[in-house]
């Protein structure tokens, strides 16, 4: 594939990196998944579930867009919080374009202002596209317009665009600087998304000319172990008390094919430790008579089997690592 300019002076292929930032729950992971078209980043209704820079790759005729999904940038309260912010800053300084996500259904808050301020410190050549996410949640065009203006006032953005990764399609002609997207476009989940192709075009336009960086069809280069750990983490977070998400860390200890299995009936043994900070949290994760942990295991196993394409035996253990978020030694052990 040639990466030189075509006769009109446009490069025939672009490739590079984009990164979405935004306060927790802004919809970054969902957007990554919707653009890539498969489940690579972990989403949940709870804030702060994304702990690793997971890349999803958008393959197009004219470009390859590598999406780096980061933890939420926020005012740090613990050592873990500080480290997460460092990860985000390091990522921001390396990408070609940044997408600043803010949800349409919530007013601009201190978290958004904090991030906008961080973004204004980026080297001037890194363009920032402001993305008003969850546009489907605001039915009133005037309100959506007001939210776009509010977002625009937060910084000096290269573009501003409302999108929806899921939910019902909006009517054509709704407000917004890029309101001409294809409202009928389908998201991978089957529901109609809105303006994803417009957003992809805007991101791609900011990439340098260059050949593909990854082989065709590859969706993520995140090591399997990390993806498996994230799937367990997601399953363990479902339906638990509010304080638990921040106290959960998942480490895959081992993944080995079971010996003595017939070639046509392989089984992968996956051993996973789920770390919590206190014995009381361990009890929550395990549930009465181990019932909850069993559900978590069943859910996670299904996802892992789908990811790896092989039957899996999942061994889940819950361990207490006291106050791991505040202890540098434990943080290192858990991979932060
Ligand atoms: N209606 C609607 N809901 C959305 C949309 N995008 C995300 N959501 C929901 O918003 C919640 C948070 O989305 P995530 O993608 O996990 O948000 P995030 O910014 O990655 O969150 P962290 O990992 O906590 O930083 C989930 O419940 C999503 O289903 C959207 O376009 N429309």
TrEMBL record:
Residues 48-52 are annotated as: G2. InterPro entries: G_ERA_dom, GTP-bd, GTPase_Era-like, KH_dom-like_a/b, KH_dom_type_2, KH_sf_prok-type, P-loop_NTPase, Small_GTP-bd. Pfam families: KH_2, MMR_HSR1. One of its GO terms (cellular component) is cytosol. Residues 22-29 are annotated as: G1. Residues 133-136 are annotated as: G4. Keywords: Cell membrane, Cytoplasm, GTP-binding, Membrane, Nucleotide-binding, Ribosome biogenesis, RNA-binding, rRNA-binding. Gene3D superfamilies: 3.30.300.20, P-loop containing nucleotide triphosphate hydrolases (3.40.50.300). It is found in: Cytoplasm; Cell membrane. Its main location: cytoplasm. It is a peripheral membrane protein. Residues 14-209 form the Era-type G domain. Residues 69-72 are annotated as: G3. Residues 240-322 form the KH type-2 domain. The keyword Glycoprotein does not apply. One of its GO terms (biological process) is ribosomal small subunit assembly. Residues 179-191 have a biased composition (Low complexity). Residues 163-165 are annotated as: G5. It comes from the Bacteria. Residues 171-191 are annotated as: Disordered. An essential GTPase that binds both GDP and GTP, with rapid nucleotide exchange. Plays a role in 16S rRNA processing and 30S ribosomal subunit biogenesis and possibly also in cell cycle regulation and energy metabolism. Monomer. Belongs to the TRAFAC class TrmE-Era-EngA-EngB-Septin-like GTPase superfamily. Era GTPase family. This is GTPase Era. It comes from Frankia nepalensis. The lineage of its organism: Bacteria, Bacillati, Actinomycetota, Actinomycetes, Frankiales. The gene is era.
């Amino acid at each position: 594939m040639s990466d030189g300019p075509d006769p009109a002076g446009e490069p025939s292929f672009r490739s590079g990196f984009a990164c979405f930032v935004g306060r927790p729950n802004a919809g970054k992971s969902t957007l990554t998944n919707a653009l890539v078209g498969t489940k690579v980043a972990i989403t949940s209704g709870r804030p702060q579930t994304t702990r690793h820079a997971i890349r999803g790759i958008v393959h197009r005729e004219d470009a390859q867009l590598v999406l780096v999904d980061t933890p939420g940038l926020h005012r740090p309260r613990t050592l873990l919080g500080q480290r997460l912010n460092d990860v985000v800053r390091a990522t921001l300084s390396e990408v070609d374009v940044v997408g600043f996500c803010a949800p349409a259904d919530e007013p601009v808050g201190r978290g958004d202002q904090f991030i906008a301020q961080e973004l204004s410190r980026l080297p001037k050549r890194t363009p920032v596209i402001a993305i008003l996410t969850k546009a489907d949640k605001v039915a009133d065009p005037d309100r959506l317009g007001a939210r776009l203006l509010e977002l625009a006032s937060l910084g000096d953005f290269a573009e501003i665009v409302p999108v929806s990764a899921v939910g019902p399609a909006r009517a054509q002609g709704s407000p917004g600087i890029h309101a001409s997207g294809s409202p009928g476009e389908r998201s991978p989940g089957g529901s109609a998304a809105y303006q994803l192709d417009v957003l992809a075009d805007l991101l791609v336009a900011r990439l340098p000319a260059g050949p593909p960086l990854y082989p065709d069809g590859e969706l993520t280069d995140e090591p399997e172990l990390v993806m498996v750990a994230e799937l367990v983490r997601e399953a363990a977070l479902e339906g638990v008390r509010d304080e638990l998400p921040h106290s959960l860390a998942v480490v895959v200890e081992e993944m080995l094919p079971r010996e003595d299995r017939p070639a046509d009936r392989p089984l992968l043994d996956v051993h996973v430790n789920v770390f919590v900070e206190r014995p009381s949290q361990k009890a929550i994760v395990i549930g009465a008579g181990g019932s909850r942990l069993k559900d978590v295991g069943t859910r996670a196993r299904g996802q892992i089997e789908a990811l790896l394409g092989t039957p899996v035996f999942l061994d889940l253990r819950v361990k207490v690592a006291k106050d791991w978020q505040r202890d540098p030694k434990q943080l290192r052990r858990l991979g932060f």
